[in-house]
Design brief:
The protein is of the alpha+beta class and 113 residues long. It is built from three helices and five strands. Strands 1, 2, 3, 4 and 5 form a five-stranded antiparallel beta sheet that branches. Strand 2 and strand 3 form a beta hairpin. The chain is elongated, with a radius of gyration of 17 Å.
């Protein structure tokens, strides 16, 4: 029984946003304007009944705000999103995960000075 509670407890305790920065382009052009760096932000949260945020809201609007905060902290003045992916893990451990649903949103973008 306790093994079925490990993943939901993990998401309840360790909800956060993690950001990674990439600055090496290996001499390749990145399009019309060269970005200062690329940024990937992953937000992890927990929803109740699949749709209602409990601990940290990891949906797109809040994740975008977190992404822009990380971009500002890395001296960026503007950014362009390349990819957005939100996953709700409702079928991870049914029926328990229907009640407490882990949510992960990942944003990837270019950051310009």
């Amino acid at each position: 029984m306790i093994r079925y509670l490990i993943v939901p407890i993990f998401f309840l305790i360790f909800n956060c946003a993690i950001s990674e920065k990439a600055t090496k382009f290996n001499g390749m052009p990145a399009g019309d304007a060269k970005p200062d760096h690329y940024l990937k932000t992953t937000s992890i949260g927990v929803n109740a009944l699949i749709f209602f945020p409990v601990k940290r809201n990891a949906e797109f609007p809040e994740s975008l705000e977190t992404f822009s905060d990380f971009a500002k902290k890395n001296k960026g003045s503007k950014f362009r999103l390349i990819q957005k992916e939100t996953t709700k893990w409702a079928f991870l451990l049914p029926p328990f995960s229907f009640i407490i649903t882990p949510v992960v949103t990942e944003l990837v973008g270019e950051v310009y000075d």
